[in-house]
Known about the structure:
Elements lengths: L4 H11 L3 E5 L3 H14 L3 E5 L1 H7 L1 H14 L4 E8 L2 H10 L3 E4 L6 H17 L3 E6 L10 H6 L4 H11 L3 E4 L18 H10 L4 E3 L7 H9 L12 H9 L2 E6 L1 H17 L6 H23 L6
Parallel strand pairs: 1-2, 1-8, 2-3, 3-4, 4-5, 5-6, 6-7, 7-8
Helix pairs in contact: 2-4, 2-13, 5-6, 6-8, 8-9, 10-12, 12-13
Bound molecules: ligand TD3 and zinc ion.
Amino acid sequence: MLVTNKELLLPAMQKGYAVGAFNIQNLESLLAVVEAAVEEKSPVIVAVTPSSIKYGGLAYLTKIVRTAAESAPVPMSLHLDHGKDFETVSKCVEAGFTSVMIDGSFLKFEENIALTKRVVDLAHAKGVSVEAELGRLAGVEESTVEEREAVLTDPDSAKEFVEQTGVDTLAVAIGTSHGAYKFKGEAKLDFERLRLIRERVNIPLVLHGASSVPQWIIQKAVKYGAELAGAKGIPEEHIKKAISLGISKINIDTDLRLAFTATIREVLSTKPKEFDPRKILGPAKEAMKEVVKSKMRLFGSSGKA
Ligand code: TD3
Ligand code: ZN
């Protein structure tokens, strides 16, 4: 069934588990996520970014996700991930998304509040949930430790931001980053900061950039020709700790991409005579599905549908 993020995340916050938001771009990735949720009896968030909308088309993606949700025996939402402006958000609300993120994290505090508030007014009028972001996810290459810390979410500002905007969920920055290269040295998250934010804010909190970049997938990809030297993610124990400290929604994209493309590489190089797309993308979808299922078990959402 099709629901909003708020409906998925309030029970998660109360019971202490997290719901995964998995990015999809095409039919195969959608099937992987939905089949995983059904097999795990897990609630799930299907996430679509503006660049995926550009790739797959808003109408196509909305229709396939809503079609899946309407017949699925588990609750699912269709969520816009990293909506950058009011126009993108309103198009998605209009198209039938049940949840939107407005990412004003690059704006000044007051401007982020103003933009988020406009989105909240629009979305709530249509029964759509809103996620906003305060603080920024620093990149690994371009920033020093000091620069990374400077952009993490300030707990007092988070409280003020939530009160002033009326947003449903808040993405916080505690040291994660997007992509396959999150840390040069040891993975480090600011758990004390998360604890302080949780003390001051009583809506579901969201962790972006949460992929673990499993070494076994990297090794498989490299075995079949990928170049991924230095890829490193968030250890699974850190994810568990973040959930215990109050994270209720966890975004995963990179691990799914890695699993999918490592398997495509494997099939193409072990079966050089194969040219049926279904025989190449099918195994890739299965590999992605296994990763989604393992995330659902890690997050504690398995069996919660
Ligand atoms: O919002 N997202 C997914 C889209 C970002 C582009 O990859 C995330 O926070 C996912 O983070 P990760 O760790 O999977 O890159
Ligand atoms: Zn993100």
